[in-house]
TrEMBL record, chain A:
Name of the molecule in the record: NADH-quinone oxidoreductase
Presence of the UniProt keyword Ion transport in the record: no
Function: NDH-1 shuttles electrons from NADH, via FMN and iron-sulfur (Fe-S) centers, to quinones in the respiratory chain. Couples the redox reaction to proton translocation (for every two electrons transferred, four hydrogen ions are translocated across the cytoplasmic membrane), and thus conserves the redox energy in a proton gradient.
GO cellular component terms, A-Z: membrane
UniProt EC number: 7.1.1.-
Residue stretches making up the 2Fe-2S ferredoxin-type domain: 2-79
Domain 4Fe-4S Mo/W bis-MGD-type: 216-272
Residues covered by the 4Fe-4S His(Cys)3-ligated-type domain: 79-118
Organism in which the protein naturally occurs: Pacificimonas flava
Gene Ontology terms: biological process: ATP synthesis coupled electron transport
Record's cofactor remark: Binds 1 [2Fe-2S] cluster per subunit.
Domain of life, source organism: Bacteria
Family statement: Belongs to the complex I 75 kDa subunit family.
Substrates-to-products reaction catalysed: a quinone + NADH + 5 H(+)(in) = a quinol + NAD(+) + 4 H(+)(out)
Automatic annotation (TrEMBL), chain B:
InterPro entries per the UniProt record, alphabetical: NuoE-like, NuoE_dom, NuoE_N, Thioredoxin-like_sf
Pfam families: 2Fe-2S_thioredx (PF01257)
Domain of life: Bacteria
Cross-referenced Gene3D superfamilies: Glutaredoxin, NADH-quinone oxidoreductase subunit E
Signal peptide: none
UniProt entry tagged with the keyword Chaperone: no
Keyword Iron: yes
Annotated stretches, region: Disordered: 192-230
Cofactors, names only: [2Fe-2S] cluster
Protein name: NADH-quinone oxidoreductase subunit NuoE
Homology family: Belongs to the complex I 24 kDa subunit family.
Length: 686, 230
């Protein structure tokens, strides 16, 4: 533990800390461009120069200098000040002074640091260098003349995203940052280089020239594009969400967010349901709320409880689902289901909460030493879980075995077969590695669980976990990888019915089920349910409305306060960033009003009362964060054997997995350009 | 061969050049000889560290392209990608190396790659005269002559300051040049002859031009100076 003084302040820092970190510990701000806590140290921008004694009589790059016992660091001395001014002057030599037309303006490290640490005026009157723009895909806009060659983007692509496509070509004054041959970056995390870029070289293409950072209203929210529950900030102006940026949460998303989380919500302005619709003579027509409610009352009249079903979608919040469950229960039905894909988890399959959670936790997964992926395309299903796995492989030397069709996970994996039955007869090498491991982790994907033999897969995974000792004391290596943000919340609420979606489809075919509430449910096969009296409550005119008889426009995730539970069981609250468009209302309020019309008034008049009601039955959902792990034997019985059907991953198109993302033009273009390699005619002006 | 356009610095590798017709090199493979050399280079490094051989392999590849095209060789994109695959490296990492070092040509060069040093010592000793002669011969900076024989690149110091001015032509240095020497060398090369590399004014190496001025007793035989220093 070296002890050193920074400007006379004595600090003690951990072994291996740098002088820059010591300065921060002493409360001194050190300007920097290339240094970033989550990336390797490059030491090439030289902005963090400080005076250090003992040492050579010249300033030293504090980001790359190990803190040592007895060092004296001066961050405000004349030498330091002069060094910073010099570095800044050199950085500005080739940097265009185009802040007024630069999207980074107002949130630019170079701008801020030039103000704080630079000379007041320029002494440079030679020609500046100019660099051509580089094409990097639909997300990243480049103005490479502004680049100061900090290489943060290069290091991010290599170290975090694991997609080595960005690099620095040429040398010296001719060095330029580019993707290989100006191809599109194929990472699901590429948007993060926009945040990392300390200048305006890499900016957001969809956000270009939209607003200044001080014009937007910022709201803390939870990303619902996957089941990770990334912490994000919605930047909104008026009714529109202009952009989404990540918030730091080391337990969940560190400071990254997937491209879908970043640009999916731009689909909130497209294809919206903004007024109620009622189907008349086979055609949908706009209606008033009263008409819509009356139509529902007429449609449900004469139906007994169990003839009414409800299916919750992948994006809905806990409160909405609780209200829907209460309504359906009040109508006398237990046919409520949230597992649209037919996953055999939770509910009657395996009741303990541990049976459907990512029990290891997202951050602790970094410390796993042997990992077995079972039908999980982690890279697409949860890109930021994949970065944790990649970290485990890169930093901890973890070994990854995988069952499923071979894909590029961005790290080395040992593919041990495509058949799920491999799970119960693992190759010797894999089994021994898992048994020897101190912290083994089994990750079961939805692709393996949503099959007819899903329960057998779950049982086999549990048996294997017990066999290899994956569940012991502090460590629980049994993990379910989710793809739907609403899923764990729905399972927590018991929003399930025996037999799941297949049972509902069977009942519909047999004429036992006559009416169906679709609550933002767009990912299920509509065919078995097409003749039912269908009430769609949701925000996008997507697959779910096709056979709807009544459509009730609801608030999207960004337009309401809500709770989401991520795949590790973390309860997180999200706040309203904008108001729902047109006649759309918050889901719970719609259900409350409808319950009144149906004569089954729900016992809450405000959102707070609804939350109190949830807290009463499900106390853990009222407390943000992780609750105590609840693991017990899953007790799956009569699951049968694992079939020989080929395993398929649940996500066919990473960018278009939900109605909002499908409505987002950026996501559509990403899907075209990155997944299908279809390039639209290049924008001439850009 | 078409005259390739170079950037202002005269170096082919400045930035992602518009490579002329590199598809002729699709499906590039080692010749038996290159494969042997490449394997020997990779074998120099521990297992799993094969990427360390990237510079050697790029050089072998460039020379093979040279042998195939009768020039000094260059690195078309398919060849760079071939080397990447040989070394299990991402394309961009190899591309970065190829664009960083000036000895890798990213556009085709002629049969003779003439590199003229224009750094201060060479300039003071008459590199401008050498450049003038080259221009008189129709060889211009950053261009390949229409007959495909000569490509001229102006380079920074090549370490021959004591025998300035100098030209590096392919793998040979021609030093202590005068205008006449330059003309003679170019004419000989154009005629298919091989001029004698090294200093052109009779010096053996970088010894003083008029013979040794110190340690003169050592010229003929070994001499022990230590007694004289006492």
């Amino acid at each position: 533990m070296p002890k050193l003084t920074v400007d006379g302040i004595e600090v003690e820092v951990p072994q291996g800390a740098t002088v820059l970190q010591a300065c921060e510990a002493a409360g001194k701000e050190i300007p920097r461009f290339c240094y970033h806590e989550r990336l390797s140290i490059a030491g090439n921008c030289r902005m963090c120069l400080v005076e250090v004694k003992p040492g050579p009589p010249k300033p030293q790059a504090s980001c790359a200098l190990p803190a040592a016992d007895g060092q004296e660091v001066f961050t405000e001395s004349d030498m330091t000040k002069k060094a910073r001014e010099g570095v800044m002057e050199f950085l500005l030599i080739n940097h265009p002074l185009d802040c007024p037309i630069c999207d980074q303006g107002g949130e630019c490290d170079l701008q801020d640091q030039a103000l704080m640490y630079g000379r007041g005026t320029s002494r440079y009157d030679e020609n500046k260098r100019a660099v051509t723009e580089k094409y990097m895909g639909p997300i990243i806009k480049t103005v490479m003349t502004r680049c100061i060659h900090c290489t943060r983007c290069v290091r991010f692509a290599e170290e975090v995203a694991g997609v080595e496509e960005i690099g620095a070509v040429g040398r010296g004054e001719n060095m330029q940052i580019t993707t290989y041959l100006e191809k599109t970056t194929t990472s699901e995390l590429s948007g993060n280089v926009i945040d990392l870029c300390p200048v305006g070289a890499l900016t957001s293409k969809p956000y270009a020239f939209r607003s200044r950072p001080w014009e937007t209203v910022k709201t803390n929210a939870i990303d619902v594009m996957d089941a990770l529950g990334s912490n994000v900030v919605y930047h909104a102006r008026g009714p529109q969400i202009l952009r989404v940026n990540p918030r730091v949460n080391d337990d969940v998303n560190e400071e990254w967010v997937s491209d879908k989380g970043r640009y999916g919500p731009l689909g909130l302005m497209k294809r919206r349901l903004d007024k109620p619709y009622v189907r008349q003579n086979g055609k949908l027509r706009a209606a008033s709320w009263e008409e819509a409610f009356a139509a529902i009352k007429a449609g449900l009249s004469g139906l007994s409880g169990e003839q009414i079903g409800a299916i919750a979608g992948d994006l809905v919040d806990v409160e909405s689902m609780a209200a829907l469950k209460d309504l359906v229960t009040a109508l006398g039905s237990s046919r409520h289901e949230c597992r649209q894909d037919g996953a055999k988890i939770g509910g009657e399959v395996a009741s303990p909460r541990g049976g459907y959670l990512f029990n290891t936790g997202i951050a602790p997964l970094e410390t796993a030493d042997v990992v077995l992926l079972v039908g999980a395309n982690v890279r697409w299903e949860a890109p930021l879980v994949n970065t944790r796995l990649r970290k485990a492989v890169r930093k901890g030397g973890a070994k990854v075995f995988a069952i499923g069709p071979e894909i590029d996970l961005t790290y080395a994996a040992d593919w041990i077969g495509e058949e799920l039955s491999t799970l119960s007869k693992l190759p010797k090498a894999a089994l021994e590695a898992l048994k020897k491991a101190e912290r083994p982790a089994i990750i079961v994907g939805q692709g393996a669980l949503s099959r007819a033999d899903g329960a057998a897969v779950l049982a086999a995974a549990e048996a294997l976990a017990n066999d290899i000792g994956a569940i012991s004391g502090e460590w629980n290596g049994f993990n379910i990888l989710h793809t739907a943000a609403a899923r764990v919340g729905g399972l927590d609420l018991g929003f399930t019915t025996p037999g799941g979606i297949e049972a509902l489809a069977g009942e519909a075919a047999a004429g036992k089920l006559k009416a169906l509430f679709l609550h933002g449910a767009d990912e299920l096969d509509p065919v078995p349910f097409k003749d039912l009296f269908t009430i769609y409550i949701g925000h996008h005119g997507d697959r779910g409305v096709g056979h709807a008889d009544v459509i009730l426009p609801a608030a999207s995730f960004a337009e309401k306060n809500g709770t989401w539970v991520n795949m590790e069981g973390r309860v997180q609250h999200s706040f309203r960033a904008v108001y729902p468009p047109g006649d759309a209302r918050e889901d719970w309020a719609i259900l409350r009003a409808l319950s009144d019309v149906l004569g089954k008034t729900l016992p809450y008049d405000t959102y707070e009362e609804l939350r109190d009601r949830i807290a009463k039955d499900w106390p853990h959902l009222a407390v943000p964060g992780l609750s105590a792990p609840s693991w017990s034997a899953l007790g799956i019985s009569g699951a049968g054997a694992i079939g020989a059907d080929p395993l398929r991953y649940p996500i066919g198109d990473y960018y278009l997995t939900n109605p909002v993302a499908r409505a987002s033009e950026v996501m559509q273009e990403c899907a075209e350009v990155i997944l299908r390699d279809e390039h639209r005619v290049l924008e001439a002006a850009e | 061969m078409p005259a390739a356009t170079y950037s202002s610095h005269g170096h082919a590798a400045d930035m992602a050049p518009e490579q002329p017709d590199h598809h002729a090199f699709d499906g590039f493979q080692w010749t038996a000889e290159s494969a042997k050399k490449a394997a020997a280079e990779i074998a120099k490094y521990p297992e799993g560290r094969q990427a360390s051989a990237v510079m050697a392999l790029l050089d072998i590849a460039q020379r093979q392209v040279g042998a195939q095209t009768g020039t000094q060789g260059w690195l078309p994109i398919p060849v760079i990608e071939f080397v990447s695959r040989e070394l299990l490296m991402p394309y961009i990492r190899v591309y970065e190396v190829a664009t960083f070092y000036t000895m890798y040509n990213l556009v085709p060069v002629g049969k003779y790659h003439v590199q003229l040093c224009g750094t201060t010592p060479c300039m003071l000793r008459g590199s401008d005269d050498v450049m003038r002669v080259l221009n008189e011969k129709g060889i211009y900076k950053g261009q390949t002559t229409p007959d495909g024989l000569f490509t001229l690149t102006e380079v920074e110091c090549l370490g021959n300051c004591a025998t300035a001015p100098m030209l590096q032509i392919n793998d040979d240095n021609f030093e202590c040049l005068t205008a006449e020497d330059t003309a003679r060398i170019i004419d000989m090369l154009a005629a298919g002859e091989q001029p004698q590399p090294g200093p052109q004014n009779g010096r053996h190496s970088s010894e003083p031009a008029g013979g040794p001025t110190t340690l003169t007793a050592m010229v003929e035989k070994n001499h022990d100076y230590r007694k004289e220093w006492a």
